Amino acid sequence: MRDIVTVDTGHERYDILVGPGLLADPAAWAGLPKAALAVVVSNTTVAPLYAQQVVQQLGTRYARVTQVTLPDGEAHKDWATMNLIFDHLLAEGADRKTVLFALGGGVVGDITGFAAACFMRGVPFVQLPTTLLAQVDSSVGGKTAVNHPLGKNMIGAFYQPRRVLCDLDTLATLPPREFSAGLAEVIKYGPIADMAFLDWIEAHLDALVAREPAALAHAVRRSCEIKAQVVGADEKEAGLRAILNFGHTFGHAIEAGLGFGEWLHGEAVGCGMVLAAALSARLGGVDEAFVRRLTALVRRAGLPVQPPALGAERWLSLMRMDKKSEAGEIRFVLLDAPGKASMRPAPDALVTDVLRAHGG
Amino acid sequence: MRDIVTVDTGHERYDILVGPGLLADPAAWAGLPKAALAVVVSNTTVAPLYAQQVVQQLGTRYARVTQVTLPDGEAHKDWATMNLIFDHLLAEGADRKTVLFALGGGVVGDITGFAAACFMRGVPFVQLPTTLLAQVDSSVGGKTAVNHPLGKNMIGAFYQPRRVLCDLDTLATLPPREFSAGLAEVIKYGPIADMAFLDWIEAHLDALVAREPAALAHAVRRSCEIKAQVVGADEKEAGLRAILNFGHTFGHAIEAGLGFGEWLHGEAVGCGMVLAAALSARLGGVDEAFVRRLTALVRRAGLPVQPPALGAERWLSLMRMDKKSEAGEIRFVLLDAPGKASMRPAPDALVTDVLRAHGG
């Protein structure tokens, strides 16, 4: 049993496959780009769990299959780590047809995708996300990047994968903290696009946390559907796509302010959504009851709802570095109504007020 | 008096302006993308000569204009140098609308273009080429890159500039060795696409070397026209565009084999064209008289025609790293006839033979 969600950006088109057992299912691997060499990029945590079955699948399709194992964690999402991939590709005689397979979470996917975008000015790559966050968000839509010491995801490219295989079985090995982090991005789709999905998440959160297969399948598929629709309409974030960053302006500031890797990305986004909802309420887009509802759901998902006390000045200066900022003006994804979002600036005083009210 | 050549890749379109005095001509700067910040990227050699007049032009159009000065030379065309641009952009609070201006030769243009492609996943940039090589080749067509210790231009992107200003006056300050290097890329367009242009170059080489304005204007314009036509038909080098790499497979091996910066890129290409023509003759595409004619012209342009003695094994292994290689098979741009080229493999034995005959 498997769902297929298609992403169509107008000039590129690819499938997201969602289901159990995909990594071991030959049908899921059929029709990928041909090449003499396939390279599996993973990290020290995920490679021991799944690299062998991936290599086995690829072995029947590519003359040569090699592996690169990166250090694990957001703290390593930088140029030096990406260069390990380039060193490997050149040492192995990779060419413009070589296919990269990103096996792991969001960090592996983002680095591998950016490496694929840059190596020889572009080689094909496939996403094999093994975390909930990567399956519902980062592996879909072609945003790739590495961090710069002064800002998250500052250096990157829009570069679409050829396919995304979301094998739900890989979620079984995910530590609870990482699973919760992924739930933040699932919850996100409700307030910005689909209140019926938010209702469903509230009703099925216990089943999700218990990792019941049917609940996981629905959450991943519906998340991918919403993301595919948004990305299809606005691949390069000229406008609409920015709504996918709900909670991310505050979230990125938390990540950068505490040092990348201190809070997980999803944890920062969970808390960031609470702050963004509160800011939206001050501007009249939603009411306080909605903010309380979202806060309760984020808390139930095992995510922090109270921001770190960075101090107002530091918060503002970190958020001014956000990629959505323009001419020094911070722009937030705010809720215009439940299920509807847009990107807008907000007065510094109001932002500071919200932060102060939450202990930030 | 100014010529305009338009590049149209189907989804992007921009003008190359060719003429004297463009850097100081307000009309040449009209209609560029609006932003709060413009950043001029140059190097230690070019900045003292032209940065001031560029900053002056930009000062009337952008609220803030800042400068980054890179170390000069191919040896610095790497990630570390590109990171100087990122550091500057983040320190100055650049955003997604910030416009980069690449003022200098091919190295400055390639690094700045790649930085523009990656910064926040893409900001606009403008090419202000000040060398003959950059004006007739590297600033046009959107190939951007940095070198990797194991290969030239291995890490990069296809990313088009918003405009190219070829101010012919800047060629006056070019050292003779660099001017000759640029002539290699001018000569290149003859054998691959336009034998009438080759005739013209032969007839006007003395005028070109004397840097007579009318001769320079014609050489730059016609080179840009041919390049724009090829790039418009095949932006991402699916096929045709590869012919622009005539002489480059041998040339890149010379550059990498001796260490980047030892020979200038154009010098390596000049010598590489002699070898590629000789290889084409062995395969019947042109006759020996043509090879002698091209060799004489390359020599008259002040370029080396004898390759360094790297040894056959090293030559082949360096060329196997070329981006045009596939599954370990080296592919050359060969002449099918005078004025007509295509990319093809050639037997190792024949390549070795040609190298041996030329003392390589």
TrEMBL record, chains A, B:
Q: Which reaction does it catalyse?
A: 7-phospho-2-dehydro-3-deoxy-D-arabino-heptonate = 3-dehydroquinate + phosphate
- This chain's protein is named 3-dehydroquinate synthase
Which SUPFAM superfamilies has this protein been placed in?
A: Dehydroquinate synthase-like
Q: Which residues form a coiled coil?
A: none
Q: Which PANTHER family match?
A: 3-DEHYDROQUINATE SYNTHASE, 3-DEHYDROQUINATE SYNTHASE, CHLOROPLASTIC
Query: Which positions in this protein are listed as binding NAD(+)?
Result: 72-77, 106-110, 130-131, 143, 152, 170-173
Q: Name one GO cellular component term.
A: cytoplasm
Q: Which organism is it from?
A: Rubrivivax albus
| Pfam families linked to this entry | DHQ_synthase, DHQS_C
The pathway to which it is assigned is: Metabolic intermediate biosynthesis; chorismate biosynthesis; chorismate from D-erythrose 4-phosphate and phosphoenolpyruvate: step 2/7
Question: Which GO MF term does the entry hold, naming one?
Answer: 3-dehydroquinate synthase activity
Q: Where on this chain does Zn(2+) bind?
A: 185, 248, 265
For this protein, the Enzyme Commission number is: 4.2.3.4
List this protein's GO terms for biological process: amino acid biosynthetic process; aromatic amino acid family biosynthetic process; chorismate biosynthetic process
Where is the 3-dehydroquinate synthase C-terminal domain positioned along the sequence?
182-325
The function of this protein is: Catalyzes the conversion of 3-deoxy-D-arabino-heptulosonate 7-phosphate (DAHP) to dehydroquinate (DHQ).
Identify the Gene3D superfamilies for this entry. 3.40.50.1970, Dehydroquinate synthase-like - alpha domain
Q: Where is the 3-dehydroquinate synthase N-terminal domain?
A: 68-180
Q: Tell me the compartments it is located in.
A: Cytoplasm
